[in-house]
Amino acid sequence: MIYPLLPLFLTTVLGAGAFVIGLIEGIAEMTASVFKIISGYLTDRSGRRRPYVVWGYTLSSMARPVIGLVRLWPLVLVIRFVDRIGKGVRTSPRDALIADVTDLRFRGWAYGFHRAMDHAGAIAGPLVAVLLLKGFDVSLRTVFLLSALPAAVVVLVVMIFVKERKPVRANRDDAASESGEKESSTPQTPDRGTEQGSLKDFRLFMFAVVIFTLGNSTDAFLLLRLNHAGVDETGVALLWSGFHVVKMFSTLLGGRISDRVGRKPMVITGWIYYAAIYLLFAFLETRGMLITTFLLYGLYFGLTEPVERAWVASLVPQRLRGRAFGYYNGAVGIASLPASLIFGLIWQKWGYEYAFVTGGLFALLGCVLISGVKEERRAGV
Question: In whole angstroms, what separates CA 261 from the centre of its chain?
């Protein structure tokens, strides 16, 4: 509800510039990343997922509406810091919980469904914001304050419906089951040679992800580019909803397709597609073409979001899954800080064209690196 309006609030109400947006979003994501690593370790250590999920959603839901009260951009930074702590606490345990309770044959679909529902919420939020801004003529500050209402609903839903389906320590290692073995309830001793090879691939995978992420700055810059092209606050909010419609359907389909064709070709295709979108944002001038490109950008998430998570789950044994998701989610967020800072600095010093081209080049370099990661065999192959 508030994310697409945040860069506009910072620039038009609080007088911040592109560098400040990059600083706030970069620090926010780095904060989330550190806590993703910590929560990933703790969830494996304790054998529990639910408490981290519940408290993470609660903290974020309490922090976001307070943005409507601030008068200085440094206070927005503080609030985003608290919000992202909540994000970090819940993300790795939640991703591990999804893998724990999902048959490996449908793991891509499961992550796709999760991301699709997340995007469905991102569709409704901006539409409500537009209704408030135009239908009831409220201010941006009031929209932020009213976001407390859906936030309270989120907390109640998580507390009531999120359950610990089964103890983590009771599950057997199933990294090897990606090779087509049937699930079994009998604990098995992991093959150390296979495990070491898998962890080597995981490390290469992580390195490639970090390189790609250095070119994957906050989407707030794309919204700012649209605003500079003549899209007003209402238009940005509507586009954000349309963007998430594309993301919702693409993530749902992308995860399922990856269960059939594999993770590696999907991720490489997605990263190349991302580079193409950024290059278009660098050189397109007309508002209509930029709007179309922004909506098409949503397809990238279907090619990568659920697929990367399913790939992570298959590269490590189950007993290390929480930590693996912690490292994955953490590395992505930590790399987001320099990514957003670099992008913002390049934009302010040389212009948005150079910033978007730089992002595209990092994405292509990531493609080269991830091509060396071995693709797991799919069930039934």
Answer: 23
How far is residue 109's CA from residue 104's CA, in Å, rounded to a whole number? 10
Domain holding 364: CATH number?
1.20.1250.20
Q: CA 336, 338, 339: angle at the middle one, nearest 5?
A: 55
Q: What range does the domain containing 145 cover?
A: 3-163+191-370
Sequence-ordered list of residues with C-beta below 8 angstroms from that of 86, at least 6 positions apart, any chain: 55, 56, 57, 58, 59, 60, 61, 63
Domain for residue 285, yes or no? yes
- Nearest alpha carbon to residue 236 among 222, 253, 246, 250: 222
Query: In the prediction, which pLDDT does 165 show?
Result: 66
Backbone angles phi, psi at 371, to 5 degrees: -65, -15
Q: What is the pLDDT of residues 337-379, one digit of tens each?
A: 789 889 989 998 999 999 999 999 999 999 999 999 987 644 4
Q: Taking a C-beta distance cutoff of 8 angstroms, is the pair 146, 132 a contact?
A: yes
Q: Give phi and psi for 219, each to the nearest 5.
A: -70, -10
Q: What is the pLDDT of residue 57?
A: 86
* pLDDT over 60 at 244, yes or no: yes
Minimal CA–CA distance to 320: which of 173, 180, 170, 102?
A: 173
Number of domains present in the structure of the chain: 1
- Give the predicted TM-score (pTM) of the model: 0.72
Question: Does some domain include residue 168?
Answer: no
Q: Does residue 346 sit within a domain?
A: yes
> Buried b / exposed e across 343-365, counting CB within 10 Å, b at 16+?
bbebbeeeebeebbbbbbebbbb
Q: Inter-axis angle of helices 220-228 and 352-370, to 10 degrees?
A: 150
Is it the case that residue 131 has pLDDT exceeding 70?
yes
Which amino acid belongs to residue 228?
A: H
pLDDT at 180: 43
User: Which residue blocks in the chain are alpha helix, DSSP H?
Assistant: 6-8, 18-46, 50-63, 73-100, 107-130, 140-146, 148-161, 192-213, 220-228, 233-261, 263-283, 287-315, 321-350, 352-370
Is position 173 within any domain?
no
In terms of Cβ atoms closer than 10 Å to its own Cβ (0-12, 13-18, 19+), residue 19 is middle
